[in-house]
Amino acid sequence: MIDTSHIGRELPVHSVDVERGRLRFFAKAIGETDTVYRDTDAARGAGHPDIPVPPTFLFCLEMEVPNPFAVYEELGIKVSQILHGEQRFQYHAMAYAGDQLTFHGRITDIYSKKGGKLEFVVKDTEVTNQDQQAIASLRSVIVVRNP
């Protein structure tokens, strides 16, 4: 069983620079056809200061740490037992190429179901930009399959 004393645990804060090239690559990878996500002129023509961050790209940036699974390993969870359970994004403001985004995460819940065969770890992350403006609130839930 995962030790529930980790509820409330703050995770290491990290910051990531949002790069145009990565935004363009991501837009292409997800099949985004709106040119504002690939072309600076199109983005500015649509009223944006630069290429906007596509909605789910924040998940990619959140994983920009040397070992994105370190927190789970520290909880004694084997990566091979993890299933992606849920991902939510609540947006407060737009982020753009050239921004520096900071991710403040913490474990907000740990619970089990099916007599402990399934355990759930809930992680909430607040994202701010270089001006300390709130950009988004993220929630991810992983499911741990126990034998």
Automatic annotation (TrEMBL):
Stored Gene3D superfamilies: Hotdog Thioesterase (3.10.129.10)
InterPro entries xref list: FAS1-like_DH_region, HadA-like, HotDog_dom_sf
Pfam families assigned to the protein according to its UniProt record, in alphabetical order: FAS1_DH_region (PF13452)
Span of domain FAS1-like dehydratase: 5-136
Source organism, top-level taxon: Bacteria
Coiled coil segments of this chain: none
CDD domains in the cross-refs: R_hydratase_like
Name of this chain's protein: MaoC family dehydratase N-terminal domain-containing protein
